[in-house]
Amino acid sequence: MIEEKRFSSFSISEMLGEEGFACSCGRRHATKVRAIAAEGGALELLPALLRERGAARPFILEDANTGAAAGGRAAALLERAGIRPVRFTYPQALVEPDEASVGQAVLAFDRRCDYVVAVGTGTLNDIGKILARTAGLPLAIVATAPSMDGFASATSSMISNGLKVTIDSACPELVLADLDILSAAPERMLKAGLGDMLAKYVSICDWRIAHIVTGEYYCEEIAALVRRSLAKCVGAAEGLFRREPEAVAAVLEGLVLSGMAMGFAGVSRPASGVEHYISHIWDMRSLERGAAGDLHGIQVGIGTIMALRAYDLLRKVSPDRDRALAAAADFRYGDWERVLRGNLGASAEGLVRNEAREGKYGLAGHAARLERIIARWPEILAVIDEELPPAGEVERLMRSFGMPVSPAEIGIGEDEARFAFLASKDIRDKYVATRLLWDLGILEDVAGKLAF
């Protein structure tokens, strides 16, 4: 058992102990991940790793693309080793992270199975985690692209009743990342992985400010771990797009560490801030129109640029108590509710129900938050300066790798982009940059100055 308080520099293997380790934040952090294999040919290790855990009949969950990339080979390796998998391949071209897709997996599940193996990234991982939790079985993830940071987390990002939500789910015991497979992933998925990691600039800043304003739990060691993950990914980005195995491994490690950080915190906070909520609104809009959105990491990367631009403007602000109080008093949630419904249709109902329960816009709560903001404004500005590079610096980095940096580049118009920025404060009761801007009475002004 590791008892050292500072763990942000530990290797991944040092973080896998079952009992976890004590932290200076007062909590004990642990992960349920027991083995991570990230190397060329790692898929060959799957039979032995499953056999060590007593698996005799694993359930393989895949889609057509991930089945071609790794699922078919995984099944063949298991069969040659005397392990009899049950394989379910989604028939549709696009698998959405929603109730229908979960239902398909549940209906196809063979109750004789004793392990779940999710082959893919993103949606396939999220559904696999929910299926494993529902079935009460352990989970292995076979990664097919370094495109997102949820490999080692215990949450799933899903669409429920039209609302993008984060659901507690099973944490994988095993994560296999065959670098030969990951290095061959489509370039846009590589861009998505980097976009998901660049979001960590904003997520950590949002988290620290929330701690100041609302007293929300914050752990500096977890934040330091995420900063380390981010630096590792940015440092390896050039090699990633040259598909160098060492760089792919470095980015994969950063993504895994970020997911573990969420598990240590018990929430998605360390890896998800306002930029993710902007992406969630776009996902909900796409769902309402029956259209496919872009890759999560692509949208999140663009949301990161939007958030960084907003924070650049916030650096120049001095809180005005009278203006903020007047803006809150003039705010009419009924009017805003109509805007939400007009843009999101049925998907807006989840946001409206959330506000009825949470009361984010109550005047007493706003006044109390505002006084803390004013009293600690120099500290908030210091956090922004410590955590965030200028938007232009990150934009130049993304452009150097051919990544989209504006909503228009992925077919999102100015009005839709502006709405997503404004509505990001409504996803749930999590204090993010747009909540701070609303508390200061300047959200609409800042939105009007952003170049969408």
Tell me about this structure.
There is one protein chain. The chain contains 20 helices and 10 strands. The chain has a 6-stranded parallel β-sheet, sandwiched between helices. A two-stranded antiparallel ribbon has the order 1-2. The chain has a two-stranded antiparallel ribbon with strand order 8-9. The protein has helices spanning 46-52, 64-80, 99-108, 123-135, 179-183, 187-198, 200-214, 220-241, 245-265, 274-289, 296-314, 321-330, 333-344, 348-358, 363-375, 377-387, 391-400, 414-423, 433-439, 443-449, and strands at residues 21-22, 28-29, 35-39, 58-62, 86-89, 115-119, 139-143, 155-160, 163-168, 174-178. It is globular. Helix content is 55%, strand content 10%. The termini are far apart. It has 452 residues and is α/β, with parallel strands linked by helices. Helix 4 (123-135) links the parallel strand 6 and strand 7 (139-143).
Strand order of the largest sheet: 3-10-7-6-4-5
Q: Which descriptor suits the 3D outline?
A: globular
Q: Helix count?
A: 20
Helix/strand structural class: alpha/beta
Give the C-alpha Rg. Answer: 22 Å
Distance between the termini: 50 Å
The counted number of beta strands is: 10
Average the pLDDT over all residues and give the rounded result.
94
- Residues in helices, as a percent range: 40-55%
Low confidence ranges: 1-5
Give a short account of the largest sheet.
6 strands, parallel
Q: In what range is the share of β-strand residues?
A: 5-15%
Which series of helices and strands comes N to C? EEEHEHEHEHEEEEHHHHHHHHHHHHHHHH
